[in-house]
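Both lines are given unchanged directly below:

***
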Amino acid sequence: MQLIGPWQNALEGAAAALCAVVAMAAVSLLALMLLDAGSFGSVWSLAMALTAMAVGGSVSAGSDASGDTGAIGGLASLFGGGGGMSPSMSGAADVVPLSVTLVGAVVLWIAFSRRLRQGQQRRFTAGELAVRAAGAASAALFTLMVVAGLAKGSATMPASAMSGMGGAGGGQAAEGFGGGNGGLGELMGGGSGGLSGLMGGGSGTRMAATYHVSAGSTGFGAVLWVAVVLGVGCLISRRARLPLGGALDGLRAGWGRSLSAVVRTVLVLAAVPLVALAVVGSVVGGRAGSAAGAALLLAPNALAVFLTLGVGSSWTAEVHPVQSDSSSNPLAALMAGMGGSKGAMGGGRQTDRTEHLSSLSAGGWPLWLAALTVTALILVCCAYRAARATNPVHLVPLHPYRGPLAGHLGMAQRFGVVTAVVMGAAAWLVAASGNFGVSMFGSEMGGMRAELSGSVLLTAAFGLLVGGLAGFGGSLLATVRGGFGAR
């Protein structure tokens, strides 16, 4: 094989990162086009935001009212002079669209390892591999920070959406400013428009929300993403000739097959619905296409929740309405007084809502049992594949026991640790949070906080237990089938 210089190695690593970013942007664009996001804002800017969020970038938003306010256009026209006087909405979201992340990861490793898989005459040296990795990390850092810089713009929301938000979490502001049969809503021309009455009065009002993505969190996430993808790829690759050497070669031989079985299976489980959703959404269009676009972004997230639920993890969805304290906010007290009993600030009806996934009426115990059964079958199949592919020499258990079950126990230990790491990482990545609030005169009048969370430590602990049992069972199954094959 012809030798290549360090600059060519670095450029090839950088090219792999660029290919991955392009693939991530393409998936984001496809999903947004299926969602008809062009009717709300620039699809290009929104796609850049999704691409940055896929590596951990956090998005923040602010808003102001636009549209025909008229003579009774509400508080937005009355105090539209700025300086914190006019009503405004702000928010933030922290969620990772795993479909975009996984597509980029697969493209990154395929492009990065292309020459490594062609090295039939010699292995790459450790220095060459490090230069390639540095080129990929540098390119990903620079490119994704540029993407984060481009991920800014404005997205319009119709008045109906604002009314819905007023009823869902900003009931305090909505009721006081125009959601009831009294209060400042009628005084300022809000009518029954809820938050739309507050922010502009007419039914044609559209909220223009400006958004941007944090470049710092995007850059840090980009480097971490490249490091994890390349590290996992080096451990599970079968064709790449890698200069790991020493303990790393032993780590790859003893643990790589277990990690490979789990990672490859999860990627297949995520890829099949993604391809199907992309094809169906592109052909059908309409509401079905919009549903396919949303699922295209979040199907791997749902898969991660389902699999972690199957190992015993608990998931909680929480919604917390934010209500201004009238004792410390004179304007809130004024709104409560003018809104009457029905239009008071919150009306006493806005309460925290918490749903545990295992207790949902739509699922409950049947959902948990289905998740447990499917997850157990998947893990046993993965453990069986790993046991068949791992050399028995590398299945020595980590404890001094060397009896007839030593190899099965060694497999259980390794597969349990791998399952714990993968499931814990999935629980960490899928966790999401968001918030929005309505402010006026520099004070927050109402809003909402939402969060989807699962215990990472609990998921890892259950993953260790369930993975260990699956590893032991898969190793026994491989031995039994091997014995039958020999006979």
